[in-house]
Every structure is written in structure tokens, then in C-alpha cells.
Amino acid sequence: MFQIFDVRGERAASVVRIAALRDRLRAEGLDGFIVPHSDEHQSEYLPPSAERLAWLTGFTGSAGSAVVLHDAAAVFVDGRYTLQAAAEVDPAAATVVASAETPLGKWLSARLKPGDRIGYDPWLSTVGEARKLAKRCADVGAVLVPVATNPIDAIWPRRPTAPLGPVDLHPQALAGEAVVDKLRRVATKLGERKADALVLAKADAVAWTFNIRGADVAHNAAPLAFAILRREGRPQLFIDARKLSNAVRAALADVADIAEPAALPEAIDGLAAAKLRVLADPEEIPAALGERLVAAGGVLVEGEDPTLLLKARKNTAEIDGARKAHLRDGLAMVRFLAWLDRTAPSGTIDEIGAIEALERFRSAAAHDDGSALVDISFDTIAGAGPNGAIVHYRVNRDSNRKLDQDSLFLIDSGGQYRDGTTDVTRTVAIGTPTAEMRDRFTRVLRGMIAVSRARFPAGTAGAQIDVLARLPQWEAGLDYDHGTGHGVGSFLSVHEGPQRLSKTGHVALEPGMILSNEPGSYRTGAFGIRIENLVVVTPAVAIPGGERPMLGFETLTLVPIDLRLVDVAQLGKAERDWLNAYHARVRAAHGKRVSPEDRAWLEAATRAV
């Protein structure tokens, strides 16, 4: 199985560990320390060796940070994690703070005194983050101090070693473009920015550029590595040689100079000595590298990493691969949902049992066309009843809950296939849903349909689309505290930027971008509802009489939506037509590929309304 269910957070140990950190800070002359959920690559999902925030505080979410002062400590989380953090963080050790209301910098500056020295690890914070925190400190007469060695590492016994997952070459047939052509396009972008070199710290950017995949972090196919790309001359790839087979090393050596990660700081010094103009995104590059470049006399050109948009605009091969992956994944979901519908009434299924069953269905369906499931794309979120209200809930053996009758079950999952990454959420009725459940579900559905049907001119940003998903909920005084959609990689990270559908999504949507479409509704202590499809931005069919070319979305996910939860009277004709047409696609895609028993279930689950 790809997912384990051990209790990861160590809530009971956090008081002792934070006390040990305070002792260490006193020994180093520091009055506080900042602990982001991050590694040297600014990754969202981390290897065990980098899970410092979880080890220290007990909070195991994929986004957050903490500050430890001698007389106070706080863990900062966004709306996805407020319930989870409240359950995982011992209030005797730290206070949970909603970052949207009180950002870390604001909380910190309100407690600092002139002369205070606040430590931070410059490898775990970006240039932009360090700059903002330094200003917050300076405003009250304090100082932000980079540390040479992270003090948590000194008090963490038996800290896991850094990962050494083997690196594979990603075939050009799936990547759709050769490495040399990608490097040529990046060089052109550097010329446009009047820059000589680009520093890549994000693992998925390095993986995309060099057409490699790895296994350093669970469920993520990007190997941990750095790179320096040049407008003229060979690029440098900084990666632990133990991850490379002879064949992979030989292939990479054809296009780049390969060095150990420890050689990167010296290479940064070399860029500075050559007076090269080095492009780096201040929100992506570790402060340790950006500040080293400037200190050595180099020129840091601050700007967005050009590989972000190049990677986000999927080419024909990647989009074709995504369609195939979703067809395969949809088949697994159909078989799973049919099984769940037959089995759940027995009262014997719990969250872990459902996850394990889905993983078996995914592994089996993956071989139907000769393509194996490589991994799941993230730990499956399977929330029964009130657990569904925890947006990024991760079940463990202590929290595991039965699927009770007359309740809702939310399952958010995905697969990593060589030709694509999937992410799909369905909320299903176990027994008889209440009128409130059906009302909220239908509002979520209407929002998802509104995004799916949207037609918009070039230049439209995700924030402008996000509002469409929220309108049905705003009508009832409701909302949800997460974005409507995130970008998705191609056999890479399930969360990819810069494109997103959210209140802060300011990047224009372009053809080839793949995003999730996942509005939700949550009632604490009762239930959670989310419906998620992946979509790809495409040129839209011309609108008669229209004056501008338009874009739209093609839905990739092919999985039934639970009609038992739909209040059909709430749907307009266009919404009913969309739902019926979508279900006809799902039925046509899978009807001939399932057993007679599952086919009967599928036909009922996708009936016209």
C-alpha cells in the first residue's frame, strides 16, 4: 500500500521539545526562532528529515509555520488547517493562530522588544520572506539573524537521514519536448529579461527542465535537486550522485554539468565573480542563496522563474497523457464507488478500509491499458461524518471513523501515472441525507458547474473565475476557506503554480493549463462537502456575434456525481443539461469496461435528471 496510517504528530512531546529549543536559543544568544513548514527547495510536501515543524509542535499539515519566543509560541495556519491544528497542537505548548487574520509578522512585531534577536534558517525561508520579516523586526528595533545551523537539528535525536530516491528519465514521448529544446526556450526568456543565468531551487522546476523524475518525497515525482541555467553555455545540475544510475548520469551529462548539492554555494560565488546578472524569483529562491549572491557582489535580477509558466502550459503530449490517466483513474473510481454503495450499508466500512479499497481498485485499473500506477498523488483524504469538515484531514488509526448511516463521506484522492497526475473528490451519501446536506451539496455542485461552463477572454485571471464557484453559497450566507482550484503537474506535483482559481489567483489562465475545480462546504462537527474535477484550459468554440476569441475548460475527470444529494429543483436548465451531458460522458467512457454488476450501478448513478 502507498499510504500508511500511523499517528504522525507527537502532541504530547511538544512542551518538552519547545522547552529544549528555548534552552538552545539562549545558548546561541537568540530571543526567538522562526520554524516554517519548508525545506531547501521550498517544497509543500517534505521528506521526513525536513519535517521540523511537525516534530516540534505536533502539527502535521502541509502548510504553516511557527514562532518560538522565550515567553510565547504560536503555530500559524490558514483556513484549511484550523480544525486540524486545534486537534494536533497542545495549547500548553503553543497557541494556534489563523494566519489570514493575524500573519506571523504582525504577531511577532507585537511581541518584540528593542534589541531582540530572532533567528531563522536562511535555507528554509525565501529572499522575499526574509526581507519582510527583517523589516518587521527593524520597525521595533529588533534584528532578524540567519543561523548557520538549524537549532532544531541539534535537539532532534534520531532525525531521519536525507532521502536518496533513484532518479528516472521521463520519456520525451510523454514530456512532449526534448531537454535541449526546453533549455533553448529558457535561454530565450533570459534574454528577454536581460539576465545571464537562472537559479532553480524548486524540485519540480528542475524535474521539468531536465525531463527527470524521482522518489525522494512520498507521492511526489520530483527529485530534490538544484540547477543553474544559462543564457549561453551549459547548465549545471546539483544532485546527489547516489540517486543516479550510470545510464541516467550519462544521459544527463549530455546536456548538463553534474555536481553535488554541496557545490552550489561555490557556484553562486562564481556567478557573482563573473558579474553575471542572475534571475531568481524572490518568493522561491532560498535566502541563503540570494543573499550569498548579493554579498559576493553579484547582481540579483528579481523576477518570476520562467520555467513556471513554461511548465504550466501543457503541450499536446502532456494533455493527451492527462486524458489517458483520467480515463484509467475514472474507471478505478467507478469500481470503487459501486463497491462502496454495495458495502457501506453493512456498517463495517471505516475510513481506512475505504482508502485501502480505493488503492486496490486504482492499482488494478492502472493495468487495463498497460500503464501501472506509480504512486498515489497525495495521502487520501477520507472524512466520514464530522471528519469531512476538516479540509485536509488525514486519517490515522486513532481518528479512524466508521461510515455511519445517514451521513456524508468525503473522499479526495489521486494517482500518479507516468502519463499524468490525477486529483478527484467525491462526496457520497451513506443512507439518507438531510435536507440541509442536499441543499449545501447542490450549491457546491452549482458552483462547480459554473466554473466548468465558463467562457472567458484571454487575460482572465483565476480570481475572476473563483467568484463563479462561490456565488451559489454567498446566496445562502455561506463560503469556504480554501481556493477553488490549484494547478496540477504532469506526473509531478499535484499542487502546481502559478495558475490557480482563488481570491488571490492573479495569473492569467492560458491554454494547456490544468487546474482543479473544487468548491466545498463544511459544517464543523457535522459534515464536509467537496466536489472536484480537473480541467484543462482550451480555446472555446466561437460565440456567434462575439467580438473576442474566448477560452474555456475541458473537464478531464470522468467520475459520477452522487445524484442522491442533488436538489434538482435548485438547478437551472443549463445546469441540468451540463450534469446530464457530463454523466453521459462518464457512462460512455466506462460502461463497456466494468462488470455487469458495476454497469447496472453506473447506469443508475449517471441517469438523466
Mean pLDDT: 96
What's the domain count?
3
Helix content: 25-40%
Percent of residues in β-strands: 15-25%
Major sheet, described briefly?
A: 6 strands, mixed
Structural class: alpha+beta
Form type: globular
- Poorly predicted tracts of residues: none
Tell me the span between the first and last alpha carbons: 38 Å
Helix tally? Answer: 19
**Rg, alpha carbons:** 25 Å
Kindly report the name of the CATH homologous superfamily of the largest domain. Answer: Creatinase/methionine aminopeptidase superfamily
Structure write-up:
This protein is globular. The chain is built from 19 helices and 28 strands. A hairpin with a 3-residue loop joins β25 and β26. It has 3 domains: 145 residues, 3-Layer(aba) Sandwich (Creatine Amidinohydrolase, Chain A, domain 1); 144 residues, Creatinase/prolidase N-terminal domain (Creatine Amidinohydrolase, Chain A, domain 1, 3-Layer(aba) Sandwich), CATH 3.40.350.10; 293 residues, Alpha-Beta Complex (Creatine Amidinohydrolase). By secondary structure, the chain is an alpha+beta fold. The strands form 8 sheets. Strands 4-3-2-1-5-6 form a 6-stranded mixed sheet.
Give me a quick take on this structure.
The chain is an alpha+beta fold and 609 residues long.
